[in-house]
């Protein structure tokens, strides 16, 4: 059985929820429809003409890509411009395009973690915190007979995590009262008669990302027709998500050696280096895409080098003066997401007939001569 478009995206968004994205970032479904069965997903960095041809050739009807295909409000849709031709081709072949940009950078296990992992970095910290998970307290009143069943359902749906502790809850027995009105079908008691029931007040914690799922699971496991529950906002903050990573190399190496490691780990033909090639490197900052703006963040994190793309001339001079090395591995280093996302999604869709493959098209616009 093929998975529905919405299912594929729901699974993908468990990795990179939309609310992790920076404000005004162009993400989500940009073209086409998810109201269909997905035969094959093609994971790409950029949606170029060649990538669309690849999707047609292999029978993919959904492309998940990192870089947007529509950036600003369309003033027109002329089908004889390069962009217009691309949109037309996608629509004609019923190929949907879904974008995950900064939400995939920020995500745990996203592009920045993939880059850090490729270099073997450990003890990772963020270069910049951008999102703190909101927590809510979920309180529900449940008859004693169904107490464990409701708790199990809540925990299975992801409720009850505080830091590294799972199954966190507080349970207070008490007496619930209710008077079923005419036309009701009460689980306990009968219409028109005041009931007093031994119930338990269950308190637990839910994050914004699991809130809906937890409430749905709780309602399903609860025996009552009308369930009494509350969601309270909390001051306690949840997990923090951020852009870029800084971490330790397994062993110190020279900048020259790191250069070779990066070329191999990221499969790039050349890198631009700022700094003394013989300087020892212990701590490395990485940031996929365009990272010039994060040179100071890397310095602040105590990194000996920032590995990123699109480093401009003046940032290079600033880095020399500040004493931090730079490794420009090119913006195209983000192609690491193709394999990472495809592996993640393929595992999630293991029970469906829907296939997930990384694009084989090289979308590096630069040649190294
Ligand atoms: Zn990028």
Automatic annotation (TrEMBL):
InterPro entries from the UniProt entry: DUF34/NIF3 (IPR002678), DUF34/NIF3_bac (IPR017221), DUF34/NIF3_sf (IPR036069), N-reg_PII/ATP_PRibTrfase_C (IPR015867)
Domain of life assignment: Bacteria
Keywords on record: Metal-binding
One Pfam family, short name: DUF34_NIF3
The keyword Metal-binding is annotated on this UniProt entry: yes
Keyword set includes Signal: no
PANTHER family xrefs: GTP CYCLOHYDROLASE 1 TYPE 2 HOMOLOG, NGG1 INTERACTING FACTOR 3
Similarity comment text for this entry: Belongs to the GTP cyclohydrolase I type 2/NIF3 family.
The protein's name in its UniProt record: GTP cyclohydrolase 1 type 2 homolog
Annotated organism of origin: Paenibacillus aestuarii
């Amino acid at each position: 059985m093929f998975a529905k478009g919405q299912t594929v995206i729901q699974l993908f968004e468990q990795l990179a929820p939309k609310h992790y994205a920076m404000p005004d970032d162009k993400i989500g479904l940009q073209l086409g429809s998810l109201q269909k069965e997905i035969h094959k997903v093609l994971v790409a960095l950029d949606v170029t003409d060649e990538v669309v041809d690849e999707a047609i050739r292999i029978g993919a009807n959904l492309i998940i890509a990192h870089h947007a295909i529509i950036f600003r409000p369309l003033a027109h849709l002329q089908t004889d411009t390069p962009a217009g031709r691309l949109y037309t081709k996608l629509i004609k072949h019923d190929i949907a395009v879904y974008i995950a940009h900064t939400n995939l950078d920020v995500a745990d296990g996203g592009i920045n973690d993939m880059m850090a992992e490729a270099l073997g970095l450990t003890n990772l910290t963020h270069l910049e915190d951008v999102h703190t998970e909101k927590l809510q307290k979920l309180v529900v009143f449940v008859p004693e007979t169904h107490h464990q069943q409701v708790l199990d359902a809540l925990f299975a749906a992801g409720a009850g995590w505080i830091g590294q502790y799972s199954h966190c809850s507080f349970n207070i027995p008490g007496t619930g009262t209710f008077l079923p009105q005419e036309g009701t079908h009460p689980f306990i008691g009968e219409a028109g008669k005041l009931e007093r029931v031994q119930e338990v007040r269950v308190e637990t914690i839910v994050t914004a990302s699991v809130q809906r799922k937890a409430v749905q699971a709780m309602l399903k496991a609860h025996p009552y027709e009308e369930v009494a529950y509350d969601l309270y906002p909390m001051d306690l903050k949840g997990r923090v998500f951020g852009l870029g990573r800084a971490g330790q190399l397994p062993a110190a190496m020279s900048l020259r050696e790191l250069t070779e490691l990066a070329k191999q780990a990221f499969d790039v033909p050349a890198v631009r280096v700022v700094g003394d090639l013989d300087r020892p490197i212990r701590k490395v900052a990485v940031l996929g895409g365009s990272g010039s703006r994060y040179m100071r963040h890397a310095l602040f994190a105590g990194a000996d080098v920032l590995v990123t793309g699109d480093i401009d001339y003046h940032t290079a001079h600033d880095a020399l003066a500040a004493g931090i090395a730079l490794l420009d591995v090119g913006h195209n280093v983000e192609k690491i997401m193709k394999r990472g996302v495809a592996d993640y999604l393929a595992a999630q869709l293991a029970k469906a007939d829907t296939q997930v493959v990384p694009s084989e098209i090289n979308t590096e616009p630069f040649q190294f001569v």
